[in-house]
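>> received
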Amino acid sequence: MLIIGIAGGTGSGKTTVVRRIIESLPADEVAVIPQDCYYKDNHHIPLEVRLKMNYDEPASIEWPLLCSHLSMLKEGRPIEMPTYDFLTCARMPETVTVRPREVIVVEGILVLSDEQLRDMMDVKVFVDADADDRLIRVISRDCIERGRTPKMVIDRYVETLKPMHELYIEPAKKFADLIVPQGGHNTVAIKLLTDYIRSLLKK
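>> returned
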């Protein structure tokens, strides 16, 4: 089993890179574990407080559960991955069964920020992109998928996303084995990555 970590700023193109990895491998050989599914369960906190919490710092993630689930998959055991509702900023009661696969992709802005999680990875990737391009993607995504207004997204970017990116996400780039510049548009880097993954699987 290969465990691949894919990190990068919000809106950098991580999802595109993950999709290309899945498309490059045989069907049913890849399982994806999104970091966002492991936000701490804050349903006991009032909604108005949850909406103002910082979800872009490592303390917002339940790392022990994520690492435990990865360990179970490495041992050949399925997991019940939590699910998360971005509209209510709370964990949902439903879970998703994830079974062991040849390749496990752990994807999220902070997945290279936790030492224990990094140590479990065979390949560490950082998807890099221009800050303006990332902001445009975030505005588009959050307005369509998460019910936010452009002003809400921009305010959150200035107050939280940008400072957290500079404090936690950008410094984690130094742990990457491969940096993919230009985000999901860099077809050459993505091909090099997928070719490398296939070569490791053959071994």
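>> The first strand starts at residue 2 and ends at 8.
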